[in-house]
Amino acid sequence: MERKKPLILITNDDGITSHGIKALVSVAKDFGDVCVIAPDKPQSGMGHAITVHSGITVSEASFPGAKLAFSCTGTPADCVKLGKYHLLQQKPDLCLSGINHGANMSLNVIYSGTMSAALEGALEGIPSIGISLCNNSTEAKMDTSAKVTRILIETFMSNKPDQNLCLNVNIPDVPFEEMKGLRFCRQGKGNWKEYYKERKHADGKEYLWLTGKFENFEPANSDTDLWALNNNYVSLVPVHGDMTNYKELEKGKEWELRWG
Amino acid sequence: MERKKPLILITNDDGITSHGIKALVSVAKDFGDVCVIAPDKPQSGMGHAITVHSGITVSEASFPGAKLAFSCTGTPADCVKLGKYHLLQQKPDLCLSGINHGANMSLNVIYSGTMSAALEGALEGIPSIGISLCNNSTEAKMDTSAKVTRILIETFMSNKPDQNLCLNVNIPDVPFEEMKGLRFCRQGKGNWKEYYKERKHADGKEYLWLTGKFENFEPANSDTDLWALNNNYVSLVPVHGDMTNYKELEKGKEWELRWG
Predict the structure, then answer these.
(1) Chain A residue closest in CA terms to B180
(2) Cys-Cys crosslink for B43: which of A8, B113, B153, B225, Cβ 3.0 to 4.6 Å?
């Protein structure tokens, strides 16, 4: 009896027409039946947003390499919920998000639409990977990232991941020959030092444009995605939705709590 | 010499005109100089979204009880970044987000605009509290929540919180006399079982409306916000931006990693 092919749900945050999602589908199709459900426009920086104040419009699309494809007005996390609860007849075996045009290492995970989709998949019991290339250009070449993604999917599937496993994978923007391999690590500590550019619209109305510089708070040697990427490794950080700060929880239990 | 009053930054995700933020300012003004920077429209479910694809327009506003007030077109997290990096001359001593019309316990923290603002504050070195009332009505009475918030701020400030402490506080929707006090706990495990209502716009175009039912995955007795709220405690969960799943990281280090 022929073994049923895995169902692979693919989404992203750069929108259904981006180069990155095309590269991802071109690889993933060799591992199973691909269904694409992706935003109809760029959704970078959307964090774990979901659409609660309006409806979501879904349109069928054609997508080379995919058995099924839909674009929608929702966020990346919406796309995964739509797949799980409305558009698909069975639960996907794997959820892939990306390939993102831009790094999502360190604290960027909390702002990332790419990673919100992957995390949403894992929360729904679908092993998931969010994949990002450390190059912000929408024109970035995806050949090397596609090659890495093939190795990554092979590795992921052969190690039989837990159904709630979510990996945040970042690929350094260097030639394949310079990469040193895959590396599990923790999320590095860092943050953005922001500033706002003051601009004017054509009608004279002022607006502010967010921009910033990422600061690495880790020491030179650390078992983090920041170190891994700086040393030409592909970083693999398992992430989850439990945001409890257990260290502060222990301290809190010593607090004097007032009442009444 | 007179001691300088603390500067308190206040935001929310229900927008600057909501009842909840008015209740919060009415209490917070007794603890320091209040600056309100809030979205000009509801931003529920925005997760940790930030505005990266467009500019943000900021308008000065008048707000009873606040020394300074601005509304803006940005997200809750944007409001805190704007305060820290552009609108304020000094770093706030405390950041408060809410009072949200609706619960943000358990997994809801990852979808919550209220909590994204509080977490953003803590990431910027400002001790922060996100406060939510477990009642989704935009007309919900805030008197009891205001009373709880006063006790909460007193408790928070008197215990000299770390500059990166972020508390996710949920207030049960019961009379004050029935509440049992403040309680530190971890984020409870749970998730939404979703479904989509199919609707049509006036022009006949179809859309989907997300709705769902929250499922509690915890046992009857657990040291979680879910248990605390069910037992009429005000739940205090310290949260942070490190999303690493350390348990899965240990497992991952045993994986056979392919390459080339």
Answers:
(1) A259
(2) B113
**Structurally, how many domains does chain B consist of?**
1
Which is nearest to B96 in space by CA: B118, B79, B78? B118
Q: Do A244 and B241 touch (CB under 8 A)?
A: no
Interface confidence (ipTM) of the complex: 0.96
Asked if the Cβ–Cβ distance from A185 to B119 is below 8 Å, we say no
Domain that holds residue B91: 7-189+220-252
CATH code for the domain of A123: 3.40.1210.10
Asked if A245 is an interface residue toward chain B (Cβ–Cβ < 8 A), one would say yes
Q: Is residue A252 part of a domain?
A: no
CB crowding B194-210: b at 16 or more within 10 Å, else e: bebeeeeeeeeeebbeb
Q: How far apart are CA B83 and CA B117, in angstroms?
A: 11
B211 inside domain: no
Q: Does B36 touch chain A (CB under 8 A)?
A: no
- pTM to 2 decimals? 0.96
Distance CA B116, CA B166 (A): 10
Q: Is residue B174 part of a domain?
A: yes
Q: Give per-residue pLDDT as tens, B152-180.
A: 999 999 999 999 999 999 999 999 999 99
Whether chain A has a CB inside 8 Å of the CB on B187: the answer is yes
Task: Write the pLDDT tens digit of every residue in B56-106.
Answer: 999 999 999 999 999 999 999 999 999 999 999 999 999 999 999 999 999
Q: Does residue A253 lie in a domain region?
A: no
